[in-house]
Amino acid sequence: MIATTPIAGSVATDGYPRFSDREMTDRALRLDAAMAAHGAEHALVYGANRFGSAVGWLTGWPVTREALVVHSPGERDLLLVNFYNHVPNARRMATAAQVDWAGENPIETAIAELRRRGASEATTVAAIGPFAHGAFERLAGFARPVDLNATYTTLRLVKSAEEVEWTRIAAAMTDDAVAAVRGRSAPGTTEAELADAAERAYVARGGTTHIHYFGAASMTEPGVCVPAQWPSTRTLRTGDLLSCEVSAAWWGYSAQLLRSFTVDAEPTALYRELHAVADAAFDAIVARLRPGATASELVDASGVIEDAGYTTRDDLVHGFVGGYLPPVLGSRSRALTAVPEFSFEAGMMVVVQPNVVTLGETAGVQTGELMLVTEDGAEPMHDFERGLLAAGDHQRRGG
Q1: Is residue 178 part of a domain?
Q2: Which residue stretches of the chain are H helix?
Q3: Domain span including residue 73
Q4: 384: Cβ–Cβ under 8 A, 6 or more apart, which residues?
Q5: pLDDT tens, residue by residue, 217-254
Q6: pTM score, two decimals?
Q7: Per-residue pLDDT tens for 341-393?
Q8: Within a domain: residue 398?
Q9: Has residue 123 been placed in a domain?
């Protein structure tokens, strides 16, 4: 059983896990420095409908309906929350901020606070988050907003020691979820039942669902090359290949594990080869993943996929934890954008996930997991057996 309260410098507050004061102060200071670099005197951070990670990163409140944070260097943050009945819970969790109701017109409430803090039409205000058009337009009518979303993303790339520990909890929950999927995968099982199995592995322990994607097809008559974002009504059948991509989250910190399972049958020659190539690509990429490595190096390492006569459909590598972060890389034959000039640093987290598929995209396998870049190379955040595995009633770390 996984402990439900992280211990690396973090504390529990009124029944909720919370990062240490030192961690939260460091985040605010890093934001202050970014604001100063852009000439911003204040910041307005926005989130709505459970989206907008900067609100939680700065205050500890995961966004529900709508939330805005007025942040000014040297002043206490004001967290404005809707709905009205969500305010008491926010006060229990965002203990360092002043928490109030956002009112009937949240952007007007936030502007009133900015005005109280001395902001005017000549003031530069940093804007972070998925602002609705009307809200951003109103802010622009009051002050001079500067978009700091890209800068905020940069602030999330290198993880602190406490963030790593929270992610380890999510990784262990994710491992258990994939083990549950593996154990539930049998002829007659629906993809909805696989989702149920995954969630039962962590929800009772305080975890939440980031994603669980599944894709199943016959290995002799394939037609699916990548997991789907929404479960279908198809049931698993003898001779299927099931691929999955699962991310359980611990208070906004998500891990990610990708595996492929055969259902009540030995893998066909095609799927053995696809997975062997995927394993080779994974190993080659991870061997290059270290401080100072470039995005181009990782794409070059994945060339074993094309050399074997295959391609990919999913992203090959992407930054993770705190968002879908840079760099987002495709393989040599499926690069949706130019390979960025990007160098890795210790403390970054990336998902390495070579989804090797046939050129016609009728068959494919999925494998991979979240990795932590360390001074010595790349460290897996997960503890789950690798390889093209048989489904069925197995223990988490092996058959």
Answers
A1: yes
A2: 21-37, 53-59, 87-93, 106-116, 133-142, 149-155, 161-184, 191-200, 269-288, 295-301, 304-307
A3: 11-155
A4: 175, 178, 179, 257, 259, 369, 396, 397
A5: 999 999 999 999 999 999 999 999 999 999 999 999 99
A6: 0.94
A7: 999 999 999 999 999 999 999 999 999 999 999 999 999 999 999 999 999 85
A8: no
A9: yes
